[in-house]
Write a structure and sequence with these properties.
Blueprint: H1 2-20, E1 38-43, H2 53-60, H3 63-66, E2 69-74, H4 79-87, E3 93-97, H5 98-106, E4 114-118, E5 125-130, E6 145-149, H6 153-164, E7 173-177, H7 182-187, E8 193-197, H8 201-208, E9 212-216, E10 227-231, H9 233-238, H10 240-259, H11 261-271, H12 277-287, H13 304-316
Parallel strand pairs: 1-2, 1-3, 6-7, 6-8
Antiparallel strand pairs: 3-10, 4-10, 5-8, 5-9
Helix pairs in contact: 2-10, 2-11, 10-11, 11-12
Length: 338
């Protein structure tokens, strides 16, 4: 009887080993077929719009499934909410405006995060107006009123942008408003210009029915990144393989989206039927030139030298305290340069 029990136990153990043997014990293979699927939550930079379509593309195309990750995608509402959600453990990954997050880290407000990939290699923050205002250069803003999202990075960075552009920022009246009200204010000419994102150009053209003039902050603040993907230092330490697999799949979705904007916009429209395919395609096409690094590095690459210069710019502008190092806000090991 004892021999039969031992034989049965050995057979069961062998069966279990066969069932689990096709995956790495540490999950390093990224093969979901042989191990449990990791479940994580990710929050977009802002809602369900073209600039964030790549997350749903990665999910729809099976890129997350390929690496054994199941992702619950939540709609974000800007840096404050996204950083709060990450800190509270409601999400494990988030997208947000990198420069804005660095400002918050440099002020000691949110420090428990690290950027692991760049979505946009340049900041997409811009001054935007319509041709009937006569504003075509930063200096034309003198004596004018510009609306920005209240407390947004656009508002915070305006003095640094203006000074580099040869404009006294004190000569421009800034009105902080709800971000959703910006285009309406410009369309009704209640303000002369907006501090907003380049990707909103199409929406402003539609709302105002006028030709739009864009003055990018990146003309003068060249080292600033746009949106980035972040996670916590704890997750990086605890499960770097999960961070790597998630980041790789997400960036694969980003690459596919800029190469197939119509399909990406259609996938987004399935998730958010009120957001049109045309609007999604317009945003994806507008951000495409800002996604690939200029030096041939892979999509998502975070150049720590540029991060250092970003910190220097923010310190010189008085937006953050001295002492912030690139390693406090970036972990570039997940998208290495070849």
């Amino acid at each position: 009887m004892t021999k039969r029990i031992r034989a049965l136990a050995a057979a069961l153990l062998a069966t279990a080993l066969v069932a689990t043997g096709c995956s790495d014990s540490d999950g390093g293979s990224g093969d979901p077929a042989g191990g449990e699927t990791d479940k994580v939550s990710y929050i977009t930079a802002f809602g369900a719009v073209g600039r964030d379509a790549f997350a749903w593309v990665a999910k729809e195309k099976g890129y997350f499934a390929e690496v054994g990750v199941e992702v619950d995608i939540k709609e974000g509402a800007g840096n404050q909410q996204n950083l709060t959600a990450l800190k509270a453990g409601q999400v494990q990954f988030a997208a947000l405006d990198f420069t804005g997050a660095v400002i918050q880290a440099g002020r000691g407000e949110f420090t428990d995060w690290r950027a692991v990939a760049a979505v946009h290699q340049q900041t997409l923050i811009s001054v935007m107006t319509t041709t009937d205002t006569g504003i075509s250069t930063p200096k034309d803003l003198q004596g004018k009123t510009m609306a920005t999202g209240a407390g947004s990075v656009t508002e915070l960075l305006f003095p640094a942008y203006a000074q580099l552009a040869g404009l006294d920022p004190k000569t421009v009246k800034i009105e902080g408003v709800q971000a959703t009200a910006l285009n309406g204010l410009m369309a009704s000419r209640k303000v002369d210009a907006l501090g907003t994102f380049l990707l909103s150009r199409g929406a402003l053209e539609t709302a105002s029915r006028k030709e739009v003039v864009v003055l990018p902050y990146s003309d003068y603040l060249k080292d600033l990144f746009g949106n980035a993907v972040i996670t916590t230092p704890l997750l990086i330490e605890k499960d770097p393989d999960l961070v790597r697999r998630f980041t790789t799949a997400l960036l694969k979705g980003l690459a596919y989206s800029i190469e197939h904007p119509d399909e990406a916009a259609t996938i987004l429209n399935k998730v958010k039927p009120t957001y049109t395919v045309a609007a999604g395609r317009s945003e994806i096409e507008a951000m495409t030139p800002h996604v690939r690094p200029a030096d041939g590095a892979p999509i998502g690459f975070l150049d720590e030298t540029r991060v250092s210069r970003t910190i220097e710019v923010l310190q010189n502008a008085g937006l953050i305290r001295p002492g912030l190092a690139p390693s406090h806000v970036v972990d570039s090991s997940f998208v290495p340069k070849p």
